[in-house]
Every structure is written in structure tokens, then in C-alpha cells.
Amino acid sequence: MNEEKKGYIIIFVTASSVEEGQKIGRTLVEERLVACINIVSPIQSIFQWQGRVSDEREALLIAKTKSALFNDIVVRVKKLHSYKVPEIIAVPIVEGSQDYLNWISAETLK
Fold first, then answer.
1. H-helix or E-strand containing 19?
2. Distance CA 90, CA 65 (A)
3. Across all residues in the chain, what is the average pLDDT?
4. Looking at residues 44-66, what average pLDDT do you find?
């Protein structure tokens, strides 16, 4: 991995609706915790919850940010989210346009 490209992540968060996703997304962008959030809807999620299989329509948030901000994002999403256990997972950006990565840096804290 190119040393300059370390430290950038994509975070996936599922939300109960587009409206909830918009509230979370706008807050994270306004607070400069993420540079950008895409909202994909609808998605169908099938999962185990409280002893039964659930099949729900949700919205998927795809956030671009720096790994140093992950813990702050988790805290903020948990405060804004309607789920008791929201999905908040991150994957590293292994490669990316240096111009885009520079933009992420410029638009986020730290």
C-alpha cells in the first residue's frame, strides 16, 4: 500500500429509512467527521435479531473519511441512530486518486 494512502476509510452504516440516513449523513458532514456520504436506497437486509430472522428495507450510508475519526463517528452515529445496535463498520481505502484523498483530508477534522 502506498504510504500516502494510509489512514483513509469507507464506513458503512445502515439506517431504518432514507430520512434517518439523511439526518445522520448531514450531521456527520456538517461536523466535518466525514467528507461525503452516499445514501443507497432501498436495500434489503436479512439478519438475525432477538432470536428471529428479520427481513427489512433499509438505507445504506457509505461515508468517506479518515481512520483517525472512526471512534468519534461511532459515538455520533449511536446518538443519532434509532437502532440499539447500528451497523457501523469500516474498511480501508487501499488505493484512491490522490486528488480525492487530498479532498477528504481538506474536508474533515484532524
1. helix 18-30
2. 10
3. 95
4. 98
Cell of 86: 447500528
Task: Give the Cα separation of 86 and 13 in Å (integer).
Answer: 7
Cell, residue 85: 445496535
Buried-exposed string 44-54: b where 16+ CB fall within 10 A, e elsewhere: eeeeeeeeeee
Q: How confident is the model at residue 5 (pLDDT cuts 50, 70, 90)?
A: low
CB-based contacts of 45: which residues, under 8 Å, 6+ apart? 14, 54, 55, 56, 57, 58
Please give the average per-residue pLDDT across 1-9, as a whole number. Answer: 69
CA atoms within 13 A on the CB side of 4: 8
* CA-based max dimension of the chain: 46
Q: Name the DSSP letter for residue 29.
A: H
Q: Compute and round to an integer the Cα radius of gyration of the chain.
A: 15
CATH class of 21-107: alpha beta
List pLDDT tens digits, range 23-32: 999 999 999 9
Query: Could you tell me the pTM of the whole model?
Result: 0.93
